[in-house]
Amino acid sequence: MGELRGTHVPVLLERCLELLAPALDRGGRTVHVDATLGLAGHAEAVLERHPDTVLVGLDRDTEALAHARVRLARFADRIHLEHAVYDELPEVLERLGYPAVDGVLFDLGVSSLQLDAPDRGFAYAQDAPLDMRMDQTRGVTAEEVVNTYAHPDLARVLRVYGEEKFAGKIASAIIRERERAPITSSARLAELVRESIPAPARRTGGHPAKRTFQALRIEVNRELAALETALPAALDKLNVGGRMVVLSYHSLEDRLTKQALADRVRSKGPVDLPVELPGSGPTFRLLSRGAELPGEAEVAVNPRAASVRLRAAERLDPTAGQQGRTDRERYRRRVKAMHQPGTGSTPGSTVEPGATPGDGSGTDEEGEGT
Ligand SMILES: C[S@@+](CC[C@H](N)C(=O)[O-])C[C@H]1O[C@@H](n2cnc3c(N)ncnc32)[C@H](O)[C@@H]1O
Question: Which residues have C-beta atoms less than 6 Å from ligand 1?
């Protein structure tokens, strides 16, 4: 287990605790899943605040788990720390005998432990072997990706996962270089990326290799595929009143989160009925207004928080049956207002781009409800 370096401040900690509290404080034992345990900063705070809560902590990184185990030693009688990818959550819960849970937190991306480790290759700022696997016990390394992928595949990875404008140029430079000698170090790759980007573009948007490293990390760890499966699976496991909070650090993660939640907060019944048909109403309500951003004060002390986007939702009681109807009525009122002369109002006009009317994301009317 490597030594911990630097500071490790859990992102949006107080907000996460505030959102999870009603789900975890319900008199009697509750179960909380930390799907991305990392160094257990969030998990420790949850266990401290909720003495009746049992924690199921998952991480695919064995080193992070070892650190978390030490940090959480005083809670040993109510923690289960599991080496697993978060899309394996249903199997983990079944094995532990928890059919449902009350809280779930996803704090996505890499931990400071991984970024700071001199030997894991996540950081373009320090030279290391090109590994980038969060789970060093299995899977392909970034070195294998850069030295074996064909040009179109490499360019696609950089363009889609890194949103890199110069994906084609960088992929060509990688292919040329590896024909001379395999690319094995993060410093060589970072330099190659810098050289392939036109000089004016090097001066904007942070370090030129940032997007390439992000893209390779996502590819190596199959991050988006795992997330796409894990989010609905985790939502399915929540008890009524249970809550899920997701912290994303780039737009692809946030988009998947938004879609997974939108699918649950939307009524699936015909829009012109005054009441929900049985089983067609929303099963969740949003607790966040659009994506919540960090405050300036937090970013000042914790630069890792700068790109965070928080979304959260709560499972509804299917027997209460009011929420979907309320959403329909709101939607119909907006449609009606739009057709009245002189109002200029449009349905969903306060909804952030891409949200569907009645999905509640980003509307002024959606209470945060904690
Ligand atoms: C940002 S850190 C979590 C930090 C943690 N909340 C804390 O307070 O210390 C993200 C962690 O999630 C883990 N992780 C990322 N993707 C994962 C996945 N698909 N399955 C399980 N763990 C994953 C990483 O190994 C890393 O340790």
Answer: 8, 10, 36, 38-42, 58-61, 64, 85-86, 107, 109, 111, 134, 226
Pairing of strands 284-286, 238-248: unpaired
CB 91 within 8 A of CB 18: no
**Residues found in the chain:** 370
**C-alpha dihedral sign at 88, 90, 91, 96:** positive
Predicted confidence (pLDDT) per residue in 111-154, tens digit = 888 887 778 888 877 888 999 999 988 899 999 999 999 999 99
**Both tokens assigned to 98:** 């928890």
Entry pTM = 0.84
Q: Which residues contact 134 (CB under 8 A, 6 or more apart)?
A: 60, 61, 110, 114, 221
Using CA atoms, how far apart are residues 61 and 85, in angstroms rounded to an integer?
9
Using the mean position of ligand 1's atoms as its centre, give its distance from the Cα of residue 37 in Å. 5
Cα separations in angstroms, 234 against 46, 114, 153: 18, 25, 31
Reported as a single tens digit per residue, the pLDDT across 157-190 is: 999 999 999 999 999 999 999 999 999 999 999 9
Using CB atoms within 10 Å of the CB of residue 80, give its burial: 0 to 12 exposed, 13 to 18 middle, 19+ buried: middle
The Cβ of residue 151 has, within 10 Å, a number of other Cβ atoms equal to 12
Residue owning the nearest CA to atom 27 of ligand 1: 38
